[in-house]
Amino acid sequence: MQLDNIQGECQDAKGTWPVTFSLETSEATAAYSPARAATETYVNGTRNAVSNSRPVNFAFASSAAFTAAGEPSAARQPTSLTWTTKSQRTISETVQPGEVSWVEVQEHRATGSGAFTIVDESGNKLVITGTFDSTHSDGRHRVMQRTAPMTEAEMKRAAEARG
Asked: What pTM was computed for the model?
């Protein structure tokens, strides 16, 4: 896995500071995270199927930890690094009458170790080895539309709204 020019934030005992970094992986394993709801629930209380296409935005948190000092040793030494990866997909969905629909995502993640090249706002460069838990750079997240029948209370409210 290779990451280049990623915006992140380093932390140490003195606080946090923004950085740009690259990662060259020495070893990594990939897996999918548990599914989580990624959007609001859409309730179809009409008498007809509803079809639409909409963008779905995802934000995934990633982190790295450092246990040894980097080079040059005079540079500020971070103990951890965090960053967020954002992604967007357009989904097309059809929700049948009396159904509730939502979108779930399983994030494709990578864990491992590698060499981080960190550049701070002043242009100072630090190379440090660390372990990471990150969104995989290939972006192969699983996006699924789920549906279920409306509850009795939802059906009653929809019928009352239709009059």
From this structure: 0.78
Which tokens sit at 69? 């000092």
Q: Which residue has the tokens 């982190």?
A: 63
d(CA 121, CA 134): 23
Query: Once rounded to an integer, what is the mean pLDDT over residues 85-106?
Result: 91
% pLDDT > 90, the chain: 53
Confidence band for 94, pLDDT divided at 50, 70 and 90: very high
Name every residue whose Cβ is closer than 8 Å to that of residue 14 and which is 6 or more positions away in sequence: 76
Task: List the domains of the chain with CATH numbers.
Answer: 2-162 (2.170.15)
Residues 6+ apart with CB under 8 A from 137: 1, 2, 3, 110
Q: Are 94 and 101 in contact (CB under 8 A)?
A: no
- DSSP assignment of 57-117 equals EEEEEEEEE--S--BSTTS---SEEEEEEEEEEEEEEEE-TTEEEEEEEE-EEEEEEEEEE
Burial call 111-142: b when 16+ CB within 10 Å, e when fewer: ebbbebbbebeeeeebebbbebebbbbeeebe
Q: Can you tell me whether residue 160 is helix, strand or coil?
A: helix
